[in-house]
Amino acid sequence: MSELRVTDIRGFAHSARQKLEAKYGEHGATVREIISRNEGELCALLGQKTGKTLYQAVRGIDETPLQSNKPRKSVSAEVNVSEPHLTLGTG
Q: Is position 79 within any domain?
């Protein structure tokens, strides 16, 4: 995981990567480098919200509340063939 780049983490765009690389060099946007930074340093560079979120993300902290009552967006169906000699399709 330490070689992942900030853009591989959900919610972080290329702008965060560019700022980190401009300040810390080419490898400055990897999880290995980000985890060595303190929260205040990341907040000063990326902004309060983004800095805090990135600081927590590379440490496996996610305070996003779970939503168990979300409405279903799609419905799928699974079709199983019970006879091994039967095939679907033409022929």
A: no
Domain boundaries, position 29: 6-57
Say how many domains are in the chain.
1
pLDDT confidence of residue 20: 93
Give, in degrees to the nearest 5, the angle at Cα 32 between 30 and 33: 70
Residue 41 included in any domain: yes
What pLDDT, on a 0 to 100 scale, did the predictor assign at position 86? 59
For residue 3, what pLDDT is reported?
83
pLDDT tens digits for range 34-85: 999 999 999 999 999 999 999 999 999 988 888 777 777 777 777 776 666 6
Neighbours of 33 (CB within 10 A): 19
What the block records as the tokens of 37 is 């930074």
> Does residue 30 form part of some domain?
yes
